[in-house]
Design goal:
2 domains, 9 helices, elongated
Length: 301
């Protein structure tokens, strides 16, 4: 007769039939699920703030208002060249380029539709100016000098409203970080409560084991092993539910215009961290259980 192979750890404590395990499974699953959602929001906000900060510090937009009378091709080219030469002569400017008609079509598509013909509309020409990262540009002096050189051109300084958006996003990012800390704390408290409840349920058995010479570390290791498996399984369930929710939200957001938000990207590093959450959940459950069991048993004896 072949011996029966089992990977189940031998335990004198009936922990699998413990009613506190159901509470711990539910709380761990919910905690990891909420953690995944809030962590995704934090990563998105972090990317948005970085995109806005770069755009705020390194780019300018110049508008060339359309002329009231019809201009020839050479006159239009001359108007454009005056503005281009003005910015190319500035030391703080790295690159100057006009926004193409295709790019204008993409910018106007949220309001006019993707198939709208904008060639007949009196839209201003846009000049995209990229600044050097190591130099500052005096906006007021530059706008005044541009107005004298080319009265039909205006400098659109979007730094003011971008600064307000960055401040608002930073507040949301701080709130999401505080929520992550709260979820982490709730998870630890839930594990501690479940372990203490389980110890109270199995106190008669624990006292008998103590009389028989069992050490606190032996019983703590049984709880740690049980909570490691429970934390991993519950963390895996919470992670999968969270990723499914993020994918569902992403599929809806894909139909919206996300030019301002930079695509709401989490990034491969963020996904990698999310995939490791079941392991972290298991380690957290195991460590918390070990510490609480050792501390509680010292009070019991």
């Amino acid at each position: 007769m072949k011996p029966k192979i089992s990977f189940k750890k031998h335990s004198e404590l009936p922990l699998e039939k413990d009613g506190a395990n159901l509470f711990l499974k539910v709380m761990t699953t919910v905690s990891v699920f909420v953690f995944v959602l809030v962590f995704a929001v934090y990563l998105v906000l972090n990317g948005v703030v970085q995109n806005w900060t770069v755009g705020m510090s390194n780019t300018l937009t110049v508008q060339l208002e359309p002329s009231e009378r019809a201009l020839s091709a050479s006159e239009q080219a001359q108007r454009r060249q005056v503005v281009v030469d003005f910015f190319e002569n500035l030391d703080a400017v790295e690159r100057v380029g006009f926004v193409s008609e295709k790019q204008m079509q993409k910018l106007m598509s949220p309001w006019l539709g993707a198939d709208a013909d904008i060639s007949s509309l009196p839209l201003p020409e846009l000049l995209d100016v990229k600044l050097k990262s190591d130099q500052n540009l005096d906006m007021e002096k530059t706008a005044a000098a541009l107005s004298e050189k080319a009265p039909y051109a205006s400098l659109d300084n979007h730094r003011l409203w971008l600064e307000r958006l960055v401040k608002f996003a930073n507040v949301l990012r701080l709130l999401s970080f505080l929520m992550l800390c709260m979820v982490f704390s709730v998870c630890i408290l839930s594990i501690s409560y479940a372990v203490c409840t389980s110890l109270a349920i199995h106190r008669p058995i624990i006292e008998i084991l103590h009389i028989m010479g069992a050490k606190d570390s032996y019983m703590a290791s049984q709880y740690a092993h049980q909570n490691f498996i429970l934390g991993f399984c519950a963390g895996l369930a919470g992670m999968l539910l969270g990723v499914l929710a993020i994918k569902s939200i992403g599929s809806v957001a894909a139909h919206l215009n996300a030019t301002l938000l930079g695509g709401l990207s989490i990034g491969w590093k963020g996904w990698l961290l999310m995939l490791t959450l079941p392991l972290w959940s298991a380690l957290l459950s195991m460590t918390t259980a070990w510490i609480n069991v050792k501390r509680t048993l010292r009070k019991m004896v």
